[in-house]
Amino acid sequence: MSSGNAFHDGLAERDAEQSTVDMAELRRYRQGDGAPDTPLIGALLEGQRLVLRWSDEAVGEFPLMWLRDHCACSECRHPMTRERLYKLLEDPLWERFASDDALDGFDFDDHSLSLTWADGHRSRFDAGWLYQRRPGQALPSLLPTPTPWRQGFFPERVAHADFVGEGDGRSRWVNALLRDGLALLDNGPCELEEVSRVAESIGPMRSTNFGGRFDVRSIPNPNNAAYTAIGLELHTDLPNWRQPPDIQLLYCLENDAEGGESSFTDGFAAAEVLREENPAAFRVLAETPIDFRFQDDGHDIGVREPIIDLDDEGRPREIRFNNWIRDTLSLPADRIEAWYDAYRAFWQVLRRPDRRVELTLAPGQMVAFDNRRVLHGRNAFDPNTGKRHLQGTYLDLDMLQSHLRALLR
């Protein structure tokens, strides 16, 4: 067995094969020419861990059981689906990781690591893949970090022709939407269902009780305020759902009516302003679930959640703000006044114009936004002065993120 009290010299143990080890992974873990980004220069067995060192002095401690579980050979990973076939529960070798005889030997060079297990199974690992996945190190994200809007912010605009073309227009648009929560697509065709075609080029449309694709225009007997000509206060869509839609696409086909300007604001940024200016109000909205409900002749959909939802690190993860479909405020009497005060304080922050984007959508223009972060609204319009017709749909955030990762390969 290769072991000892000092790192082995990988230069003396080069394998003749210099190709990238197939780790059943589509994400890049080598440079385009196949050379390792950071060569592996040392390996040392310490008990039940293999300690690896790379040329930039990075060190990774890999438990042997982790290495066995991540073998990517065709016996352990399906060669087509890349899904794990190895079942650690059924491996008799697993019990031997508590002793010193689970690993029969190992060798390495600057581009790969080879392990021979006590049962004769051989595992090979690419040095670049191991470098990316050192225990305790977060795998670098390919996704942009959501960035709060600053004063003067305006969404990135990408031409429809660039989005559907061969260049980087699509990745720029998706990146901007994930980063800012708001992006525009300009100069598209004024054709029915174009919003569906754009959406389906990324992933399946998310259906709700309004269907997979919906028309935003004034109609008789509406079951939603969007289908009227009245002004719409800033809001998020469908907070009455346990899982509200993530990404909303609104494609303008006609907009000749007077009024109807669209407005948007960053709910995450507004929540942080509230936390700074009125921490008590922030805590009330983050810690107090309330009821949201939509009802019509065929549906009655409700959920109980807070206005501001926080992640494990206390950062805003979701905003549920829609004054039309707040249900009965069911709280103890001694908490009601404090909730109303907090709600009004947040609403006043949301209405501030310094981080608010207002625009008039033109025919062939599409706006996309993160419905669980960015609030949207519109001014009232006069349907007697012209037609106003938008088509909309929703996408899951998982599909948008997946699309960008695939584009970046």
Explain this structure.
- With 409 residues, the chain is of the alpha+beta class.
- Helix content is 21%, strand content 28%.
- Helix 6 (267-277) crosses helix 8 (333-350).
- The two termini are 38 Å apart.
Counting DSSP E segments of at least 2 residues, the number of strands comes to 23
Compute the number of structural domains: 2
Low-confidence segments, given as residue ranges, are 1-18
Task: Report the structural category.
Answer: alpha+beta
What's the average pLDDT?
A: 90
The CATH superfamily of the largest domain is known as Clavaminate synthase-like
Shape: elongated
Helical fraction equals 10-25%
CATH fold-level name of the largest domain:
Double-stranded beta-helix
Which percent range describes the beta-strand content? Answer: 25-35%
CATH architectural name of the largest domain: 4-Layer Sandwich
Radius of gyration equals 27 Å
Q: How would you sum up the major sheet? A: 7 strands, mixed
Distance N terminus to C terminus?
Answer: 38 Å
Number of helices: 9
Q: What is the top-level CATH class of the largest domain? A: Alpha Beta
Brief synopsis:
Its cofactor is Fe(2+). This protein is α+β, with helices and mostly antiparallel strands.
What features would you highlight for this structure?
single chain, disordered N terminus, four-stranded antiparallel β-sheet, seven-stranded mixed β-sheet, 409 residues, alpha+beta, NE0471 N-terminal domain-like, Double-stranded beta-helix
